[in-house]
Amino acid sequence: MKGELLYEGKAKQVFQAEDKLDQLVLSYKNDATAFNGEKKAVFSGKGKYNNLISAKVFAYLRDKGVASHFVRSLNDTEQLVVKTDIIPVEVVVRNLAAGSITRRLGIEEKTVFTPPLVELFYKKDELGDPLINDEHALLLADVQPEELESIKVMALEVNQHLQTFFESINLTLADFKLEFGRNTDGDIILSDEVSPDTCRLWDKDSGAKMDKDVFREDLGDLLQVYDAILQRLEAVV
Amino acid sequence: MKGELLYEGKAKQVFQAEDKLDQLVLSYKNDATAFNGEKKAVFSGKGKYNNLISAKVFAYLRDKGVASHFVRSLNDTEQLVVKTDIIPVEVVVRNLAAGSITRRLGIEEKTVFTPPLVELFYKKDELGDPLINDEHALLLADVQPEELESIKVMALEVNQHLQTFFESINLTLADFKLEFGRNTDGDIILSDEVSPDTCRLWDKDSGAKMDKDVFREDLGDLLQVYDAILQRLEAVV
Ligand SMILES: Nc1ncnc2c1ncn2[C@@H]1O[C@H](COP(=O)(O)OP(=O)(O)O)[C@@H](O)[C@H]1O
Ligand SMILES: Nc1ncnc2c1ncn2[C@@H]1O[C@H](COP(=O)(O)OP(=O)(O)O)[C@@H](O)[C@H]1O
Ligand SMILES: [Mg+2]
Ligand SMILES: [Mg+2]
After folding, report:
1. Which residues of B195-228 are buried (b: 16+ CB within 10 A; e: fewer)?
2. Of these four, A14, B14, B59, B95, which has the most CB atoms within 10 Å of its CB?
3. What is the pLDDT of residues A188-235, one digit of tens each?
4. A197 belongs to a structural domain
5. Angle at A211 between CA A108 and CA A156, to 5 degrees
6. Are residues B153 and B59 both part of a single domain?
7. CA A141 to chain centre
8. Is the CB of B123 under 6 A from ligand 2?
9. SAICAR synthetase/ADE2 N-terminal domain location, by residue (chains A, B) (predicted)?
């Protein structure tokens, strides 16, 4: 299935798919990183959880009509995706305040954003993924104004779907990060991953954090939390 | 002329005007601060330069039809202005890259922005005046989406006028910061100051920095530079 290793990121290895030039194999690693790579650890089994959870999310989004890179799961840690030219803009959607925005703007944790807040960050590790505005995005990424608008609309649609999806397993979606890429037709489609590494998920009953914050804030056993999410998902989808 | 001291900022004291409730006396101090107040110094005479230069700028802008708080100069260090409810958003217009944007986004100094770039910062010293996007501005400041748009349009118009203005004294306007406020009628008008403290001005011949960067980067005698600007202005207006 796998051809050449094209890129190794913080969470995944990216391989050329052997038979199709326009497809990739994403291979999820066991590494956890936070605070722009300053905090690091390895959790054996983590790659499996992110791969299987992200696959379930993308399958759900496909059912809802969201155009994405997802083709199919290959095994516990790998999935086949459409190769895209990643737009170097991380799109964050926030329903409830948490993480960087609380410190950056002095907004209290759990403040509700109605409508949900969309933030853009320039995907550039050397610069620490800085917040950018729309004009910066047009300057730094190869996107047109209408495309940027449609990316934001897509992000808000994905938010609607993900809220319903996670609601079904008793989780509140506080915020999440998306990446978009351009396929060979020039269309912009949802790419990368959607997992507890890239979402903030709070248990609806206990309020407990069930995402990478468990690692960021040393709140407990990350694998146990990711396993709980996968189990809840397997019970409903 | 001056009534009660209402507020003391980093660069100015703000007094109630004695006879008119809806007017203020802005009294320019000799203090220079940079890097969010981390670097400080006093330059006796600086207040005069900022007051007189800002007054000339606002008089020019008034001629061009820009609605602002400026009423008139009172003396060397003081001017009478219309009291406004300051919108806590600093509006930065950039024609050429300099300062924070070069570090924040890795953009080389002197990179030309066509069209000029507009950035918003949340005016909040405790948070270090962070960059914000439009959605943050709507959340944090009491402004409507149409008002935010018109603030940006005004900022770009002011940019056109200021480019011509400074061009006439052989200076390139690299970037500048504006503040807007709401008057008692609810209209949003240009407020605060426009001076070498709030603009980046480069001599067209030598390229020399003729603004607060002289203080920020210890490039020479700040008062001499501000005096040169005032003299050039007095020769033309
Ligand atoms: N469909 C895709 N096509 C091309 N690249 C992709 C696709 N999906 C995700 N990527 C990229 O794969 C890389 C590896 O992922 P990850 O380990 O999360 O990297 P990073 O450390 O850069 O975030 C990232 O640069 C991500 O943008
Ligand atoms: N027309 C106005 N009405 C009310 N406040 C004003 C007006 N123009 C400027 N200000 C405010 O005056 C204060 C004093 O200026 P400054 O010393 O530059 O303060 P700061 O340190 O807050 O930047 C600032 O908060 C500025 O926003
Ligand atoms: Mg990543
Ligand atoms: Mg000020």
Report:
1. bbbbbbbbbeeeeebbbbbbbbeeeeebbebbeb
2. B95
3. 999 999 999 999 999 999 999 999 999 999 999 999 999 999 999 999
4. yes
5. 70
6. no
7. 19
8. no
9. 5-232
pLDDT single digits (tens) A2-25: 999 999 999 999 999 999 999 999
- In this prediction, residue A1 carries a pLDDT of 79
Residue B201: pLDDT band with limits 50, 70, 90: very high
Cβ distance A124 to B118 less than 8 Å, yes or no, reads no
A118: nearest CA in chain B?
B135
Query: Residue A115, preceding bond cis, omega within 30 degrees?
Result: yes
Number of structural domains chain A divides into? 2
Is A229 within the bounds of a domain?
no
Q: How confident is the prediction for chain B on average, in pLDDT?
A: 97
- How far does chain A reach from its first CA to its final CA, in angstroms? 27
End-to-end CA distance of chain B: 27
* B214 closest CA partner among B227, B205, B231: B227
The complex scores an ipTM of 0.96
Q: What is the pLDDT of residue B102?
A: 98
Query: Is there a single domain that holds both residue A42 and residue A95?
Result: no
Alpha-carbon span B30 to B48, nearest angstrom: 8
pLDDT at A237 over 80: no
Q: Is the CB of A84 under 6 A from ligand 1?
A: yes
| pLDDT the model gives residue B162 | 98
Question: Left, alpha or beta for B214 (phi > 0: left; psi -120 to 50: alpha)?
Answer: alpha
- The tokens of B156 are what? 């770009």
A122 has pLDDT over 90: yes
**A131 contact partners, CB below 8 Å, separation of at least 6:** A104, A119, A120, A121, B130, B131, B132, B133
Partners of B104 on chain A (C-beta within 8 Å) are 127, 130
User: The domain that contains A18 carries what CATH number?
Assistant: 3.30.200.20
pLDDT digits (tens, 9 = 90+) for A101-114: 999 999 999 999 99
Structure tokens at A90: 């991380």
Ligand nearest, relative to CA of residue A51: 1
